[in-house]
C-alpha cells in the first residue's frame, strides 16, 4: 500500500481504488487479506470519529470471504488406534495410590459418538430412558435442563460398535432409567470441557492429525455415511442438521459414489 499511495496523501484523500489492491493482494493468504481489511476498517472508523476523514473508504472495499475448509475426519484405522492408545494408557499409567486412569468412559463415549453422529451436548445429556436397546434406537429429546440444537428432537438407529458398547454398559451396570449414560468412575456426569480436553490429549498421544477434536467424530459419522453413498437427506436426518446445505459440505468426499451411480445408469 505504501508503494501505491504517495507519502504526502492525507487520510481524507484516500480512495477505495487505492486501498483495494493492498487488501486484495493475490500474493498473500486469504487470512492476511481478511486481517488487513479488518484493521483498516477499524483505523478509518477512528479517523472519521476524530475528523481526520470525511467517510470510511473501507465501506467500498469488499471483505474477502472466509475460506471454507473441509472438515477433518477419522478413518476407521484412526479410531482403532485412538482406542488402543486409551487402553494402553490405562494399563501402563497409575497415580500415587496405584489407580489406573479413568478413561473407560472416554472410550465408550467415543464409540457411541462416531456410531451415531450425536453432538457432545446430546451425548452428555443422554439418559438411559433415551436408549432403546431392543429396538436399537437412541432418542434425542428435550428435557427441562436441556434442549437439542434447533429444538429438533430425533430418533437415530443404533448399529455396530455403538450398539455393542451401550449393550455392554447396560449389562454391566444395570442402570436406572434416569441415570446419565456416560459417567466417570466416581459416578459423576462428564463435564463438556473434560470430554474435549481428554479426547484431544489422546488424539495427540496417538499421533493423529492435530486438526482432529471431539466434534470431528460427528464429521466422521457424516463422512463415512457419505462415502457409503447414503443420500444427503438421510444423513441430514441422522445428524439433525436444520439445513441440507450444512450436510452438503461432505458431498466432496464421495466421488467414487458419483462414478458408481453414472456407471450403473449409463455404463
Describe this structure in words.
- The chain is mainly α and 267 residues long.
- A three-stranded antiparallel beta sheet has the order 1-2-3, with no helix packed on it.
- A hairpin with a 4-residue loop joins β1 and β2.
- α3 runs antiparallel to α4 and α4 packs across α6.
- The radius of gyration is 25 Å and the shape is elongated.
- The N and C termini lie far apart (56 Å).
- 22% of the residues are buried.
- The model has no long low-confidence stretch (mean pLDDT 88).
Core attributes:
267 residues; mainly alpha; three-stranded antiparallel sheet; 11 helices; 3 strands; 48% helix; elongated
Low-confidence stretches: none
Chain-averaged pLDDT: 88
How widely separated are the two ends? 56 Å
Number of strands: 3
Query: In percent, how much strand structure appears in the residues?
Result: under 5%
Structural class assignment: mainly alpha
Largest sheet: 3 strands, antiparallel
Helix content: 40-55%
Q: Can you tell me the overall shape?
A: elongated
Amino acid at each position: 500500500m505504501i508503494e501505491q499511495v504517495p507519502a504526502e496523501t492525507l487520510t481524507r484523500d484516500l480512495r477505495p481504488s487505492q486501498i483495494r489492491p493492498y487488501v486484495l493482494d493475490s500474493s498473500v493468504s486469504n487470512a492476511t487479506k481478511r486481517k488487513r481489511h479488518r484493521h483498516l476498517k477499524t483505523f478509518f472508523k477512528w479517523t472519521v470519529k476524530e475528523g481526520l476523514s470525511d467517510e470510511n473508504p473501507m465501506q467500498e472495499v469488499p471483505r474477502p470471504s472466509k475460506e471454507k475448509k473441509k472438515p477433518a475426519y477419522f478413518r476407521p484405522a484412526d479410531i482403532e488406534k485412538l482406542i488402543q492408545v486409551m487402553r494402553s494408557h490405562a494399563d501402563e499409567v497409575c497415580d500415587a495410590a496405584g489407580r489406573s486412569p479413568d478413561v473407560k468412559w472416554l472410550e465408550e463415549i467415543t464409540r457411541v459418538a462416531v456410531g451415531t453422529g450425536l453432538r457432545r451436548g446430546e451425548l452428555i445429556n443422554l439418559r438411559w430412558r433415551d436408549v432403546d436397546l431392543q429396538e436399537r434406537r437412541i432418542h434425542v429429546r428435550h428435557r427441562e435442563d436441556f434442549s437439542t440444537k434447533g429444538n429438533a428432537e430425533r430418533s437415530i438407529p443404533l448399529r455396530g460398535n455403538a450398539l455393542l458398547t451401550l449393550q455392554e454398559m447396560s449389562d454391566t451396570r444395570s442402570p436406572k432409567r434416569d441415570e446419565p449414560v456416560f459417567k466417570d468412575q466416581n459416578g459423576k456426569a462428564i463435564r463438556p470441557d473434560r470430554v474435549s480436553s481428554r479426547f484431544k490429549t489422546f488424539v495427540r498421544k496417538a499421533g493423529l492429525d492435530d486438526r482432529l477434536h471431539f466434534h470431528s467424530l460427528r464429521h466422521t459419522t457424516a463422512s463415512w455415511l457419505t462415502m457409503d453413498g447414503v443420500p444427503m437427506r438421510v444423513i441430514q436426518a441422522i445428524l439433525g442438521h436444520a439445513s441440507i446445505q450444512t450436510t452438503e459440505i461432505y458431498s466432496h468426499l464421495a466421488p467414487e459414489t458419483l462414478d458408481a451411480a453414472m456407471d450403473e445408469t449409463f455404463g
